[in-house]
Amino acid sequence: MIRRGDWSMEVLARVLLLTLGTLGLGAFFFCSASIATEDASEEYVYLVKSEGGKIYRIAEKAAGGQKEGVKKEIRRMELIPSGTTLEVEKGASVFLSCSGCSVLNLTDKDSPYVVRMKDLKKEGSTKSKITEYFTAALHHYIHPDERPGSKTNLGTRGDPTVRKMGLCRDLWPADNEDLMPVAPLTFKWETKGTRFSLEIKEFGSHSPVFSERTTSKKIDVPLRIFKPGRKYEWSLSEEETMERCHATFTILSKEEFGRIMEVVNQLPTVLPPGMDREAKCRLQAGYLLSEGLHYDAWKWLERNGISQE
Questions:
Q1: Which residue among 186, 190, 204, 211 is buried most deeply as judged by most CB within 10 Å?
Q2: How many other β-carbons are positioned within 10 Å of the β-carbon of residue 297?
Q3: The pLDDT value given to residue 66
Q4: pTM of this prediction?
Q5: Is there a domain that residue 185 lies in?
Q6: Is 6 helix (H, G, I), strand (E, B) or coil?
Q7: The domain spanning residue 198 has which CATH number?
């Protein structure tokens, strides 16, 4: 038999446990909501162009117990997160936009300016797939001062754990790359030597589909010898030292190539009217880089007559 005092204590304990559980559950949902808010996609604008001067990003830096503003120049087509404080150089006129937005013109009279998405008129949906590709392309936009390897590639194609180093580190395309079926495929190397032998085989096969000897450090190989969706291995031998290195690559399937080229062709339509051809090509190359197509990103610039030298 449960005595009255014991029963009262038991009820009180149950009520307390239920209350704490409710509070804990509420805290869980509150934290979940906070996390969801923090994980929401960040909005960006980008610098379309600047005339008569530069534009800077202003950030606070702690120095000697005090905070001071630090300026960093913003390059053309560079992404700028919403809420960023900008400083426009005296005499400069700069133009900002975003995906599906009109162009916002700022001068030094507007400086300092805090980026607000509401200041840019939306002219289309910001949730479309092409908008995602556009933002990714801007994240990887290839600026004139960049070189292959100067930017970390965030693409997911290939397995970085199998990339070879040593003698093979200067092969181009690098090991385990995916390549678009666009002619010609150029194989380059910076290895020491004067006489080289290049051989290409379908992966797992003993019969070469292409072989050539050369004193040059690059060879253009006809696209017709390759099959879409197949993996290949190319090896390079230096005839005097007998040093040898090799790498693999895969030719994209027709379906994957078609999907990528559809995006490449659509990207310029997201830009404001009047954008020059070079900016469009660099944007397209940035998208290829975002897809992990490192070789084709730089090759795209080369094919369009844009030099990074």
A1: 186
A2: 24
A3: 62
A4: 0.78
A5: yes
A6: helix
A7: 2.60.40.10
